[in-house]
């Protein structure tokens, strides 16, 4: 008989669906594609022009955000200058957007806090580029990520409770977990309550227990935060017990 | 053989797909559904709280919109009061939202026009309810439509060049075209350059040419705008010629 989809001939044992189900499935696919088109067009409509591109793209802005990098990331000159804000421009933004995306900005701007009066918000421990990407996401739901940017944006979105961005970054980082970076990601995930990333990195660590203790990062972690190391061993033991119980049942 | 989708038995002549195509189609469907989930979650993120619900839902608003109904729709008392704005509240809004959705608002608010200075915009020939629905759409890309609301919003979105809303309303009205309302929709579509609605209503009119001339709306249209009637006849003749040519080719 002949397949209605690929038009190839096939034997009875290679049969997939009956004609009715094939037709229904094609209709479903068409419907899903129409829904995707509709959602995309609504997204394009709701997307706002990002105020981070140039000054002219932020008319009517009523906020200025200043990135204040942490001492360590702005150069460890040690002459006291490191704590000062470097000479980067402020990122313009709008109260209506920031308050609708982040409960932290909402609390800050809808109460009589200094930031609300002055319209100037200092964002600490963050570089200018990360702040720009953060604001850009608030307007467009889009971000261009690499691992470093995803980590920095995850930290910032956790601080300002922008859940959607945090989930987006976590998904990206989770897709990059491998044996070389699993300890680093495991520690990071713990610190920032990133459950999906925690599970993925823990799973990679458990698959490579034989070499775990040889790694420098492992030794560092034992020094710095031994409880996290204990949790790896506990999870590993737990898995072994469960696997053994599973085998017993067979 | 057995269908892998509905699990029913079927005969060889009722075969739909081979196994490989069935599996691919299932994967495609899963992928499309994941894409829909992702788009929906981005939409939810980008959607803004509508400022039309109550005053408290529009903090940081920097505009007030006033609906000024046309004389005819605000009651034909004829005592001169009809032209005054009725006692409805103003609808609050934000410059950043309105300018990003409508080139007309953009031109109005980014130049030194009276509206830009005062922050007060009068929207003429529109009821309070339609203005609220219009502003609501600017923030949410959502509207609750019936035929009247869809027509009113289409007119308003044409005036302010909010293409997305115009297309949304046109699609809704097009789905409601029937023999009873086809002349009215045909005239409306002409007046507001609604191509999809024009084609749909013209098609219904051509399917019912025998009874067209008996209708009151037809007689009115001949009086008011005979060119539109000529266009119906031209389209009808054109279709007859094409159908005849098609038959000749067979």
From TrEMBL, chains A, B:
CDD domains tied to this protein: BACK, BTB_POZ_ZBTB_KLHL-like
Family annotation (SMART domains): BTB
Any matching Pfam family: BTB
InterPro entries according to UniProt: BTB/POZ_dom, SKP1/BTB/POZ_sf
Gene3D superfamilies: 1.25.40.420, Potassium Channel Kv1.1, Chain A (3.30.710.10)
Domain BTB: 80-147
Pathway, per record: Protein modification; protein ubiquitination
Name under which the protein is recorded: BTB/POZ domain-containing protein
Annotated organism of origin: Dichanthelium oligosanthes
Taxonomic path: Eukaryota, Viridiplantae, Streptophyta, Embryophyta, Tracheophyta
């Amino acid at each position: 008989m002949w397949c209605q989809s690929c038009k190839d001939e096939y034997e009875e044992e290679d049969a997939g669906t009956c004609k009715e189900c094939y037709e229904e499935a094609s209709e479903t696919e068409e419907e899903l594609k129409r829904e995707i088109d509709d959602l995309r067009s609504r997204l394009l409509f709701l997307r706002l022009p990002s105020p981070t591109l140039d000054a002219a793209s932020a008319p009517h802005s009523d906020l200025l955000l200043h990135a204040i990098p942490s001492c360590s990331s702005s150069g460890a000159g040690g002459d006291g200058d490191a704590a000062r804000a470097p000479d980067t421009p402020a990122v313009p933004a709008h109260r209506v957007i920031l308050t609708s995306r982040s409960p932290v900005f909402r609390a800050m701007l809808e109460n009589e806090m200094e930031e609300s009066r002055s319209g100037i918000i200092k964002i600490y421990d963050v570089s200018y580029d990360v702040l720009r990407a953060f604001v850009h996401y608030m307007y467009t739901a889009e971000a261009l990520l690499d691992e470093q940017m995803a980590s920095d944006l995850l930290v910032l979105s956790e601080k300002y409770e922008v859940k959607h961005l945090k989930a987006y970054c976590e998904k990206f980082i989770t897709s990059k977990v491998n044996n070389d970076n699993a300890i680093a990601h495991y520690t990071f995930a713990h610190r920032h309550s990133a459950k999906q990333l925690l599970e993925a990195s823990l799973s990679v660590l458990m698959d490579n227990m034989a070499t775990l203790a040889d790694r420098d990062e492992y030794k560092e972690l034992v020094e710095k935060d031994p409880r996290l190391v204990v949790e790896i061993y506990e999870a590993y033991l737990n898995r072994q017990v469960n696997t053994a119980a599973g085998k017993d049942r067979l």
